[in-house]
Amino acid sequence: MHAKRTALNETHRRLGARLIPFAGWSMPVEYTGIIAEHNAVRSAAGLFDVSHMGEFEVRGPEALALLQAVTSNDAARIVPGQAQYSALPTPEGGVVDDLLVYCLAPGRYMLVVNAGNIEKDFAWITRHNRFNAEVEDISDRTSLVSLQGPRSLDILQPLADQPLAPVGYYHFVSGVVAGVKALISRTGYTGEDGFELYVPSESAETVWNGLLESGGPFGLLPAGLGARNTLRLEAKMLLYGADMDETTSLLEAGLGWIVRLEKGPFVGRDALERQKLEGPPRALVGFEMLGREIARDGYPVFIAGREVGRVTSGSPSITLKKNIGLAYVPAEYRKIGTRFEVGLRGRRAEAEIVSTPFYKRR
Q1: In the β-sheet with 134-137, what is the strand arrangement from edge to edge?
Q2: Relative to the CA of 247, which of 40, 76, 204, 218 has its CA 20 to 30 Å away?
């Protein structure tokens, strides 16, 4: 199986990116180095190619009814120009995927799903589509470029034909960027201000190069998946397949805020309602290591000498100069200040549960 390539693959090669296979795609993991790219996003700006993500359009008289049936959040609450974080729950309350829902117009939505789940999600939504609604996979013709960091607005505005300062978080406008039609969304996966630009794949390079040029004087760096991962972990933004999947419930993952039981029936509602009443058996907690050890994904977690879970995401925090992570623990141990041990190849190191997000922008 050859790894799929985004429209910017050759551009990354020219920039000297180190490419790795990720979710079936050839993706840049770093250009100048993860630390430099991470710090650029926190202090100035970083530019990411996230065109491996999937996009579906859902349209028709009952498009909203279909979304209400398959997603956990209440899609009726968003109006054209607004986006929403949501999830596709399983009947047991697990997570088929987490996703963004964009309301493009009444009866017309765009869903943005994880790269590794495109086929699975499309089949899942189609299987539950007993409504007068059409679902189309537009992933191949859509590229996604993400500009993140405190100088994002300064870098993007000169290239855009729309005023962007008034666009609120989780809102978007349609416009033109560097001469290319784009959906300009004030969203991101880094914990910083920023914009995600959905553009036709054949024009992705024009937009990318325009942003690199505009961002040069501000300290913009092209950034890869490595920095994306350290940034999102500091902001406690969950990664599908690591921090949640079909075996973890939305409530265990701390995503109760995107579960709207009051909206009416949806896949998984009964299981989630039952779990809300009884309390989820596990909780996803944030922790920091008390020594210099690094907890890596998959390392076992011990409480009172007994293995109770695993680290789902762990790495050094470049911003905070600490070693941090996320792990599932039995719900009774979820309290901030609780200490546990992480198993590191034959020995154990102490960690403490802390409040999250680890990093919040000023």
Answers
A1: 82-89, 95-105, 108-113, 54-59, 134-137
A2: 76
Taking a C-beta distance cutoff of 8 angstroms, is the pair 7, 28 a contact?
no
Per-residue model confidence as pLDDT tens digits over 279-294: 999 999 999 999 999 9
Closest to 65 measured CA to CA, from 128, 124, 126, 131: 131
Quick check: 296 and 289 in contact, CB under 8 A?
no
The DSSP secondary-structure symbol of 150 reads: T
Encode 79-89: b = buried (16+ Cβ within 10 Å), e = exposed: eebebbbbbbb
What is the widest separation between alpha-carbon atoms in the chain?
A: 61
Residues paired with 109 in a beta bridge? 58, 103
Whole-angstrom distance, CA of residue 340 vs CA of residue 349: 8
- Residue 235 · residue 37 · CB < 8 Å: no
Using CA atoms of 277, 280, 284, 285 in order, give the dihedral in degrees to the nearest 10: 70
CB 79 within 8 A of CB 276: no
Write phi, then psi, for 271 (nearest 5 degrees): -65, -40
Mean pLDDT score of the chain, rounded to an integer? 98
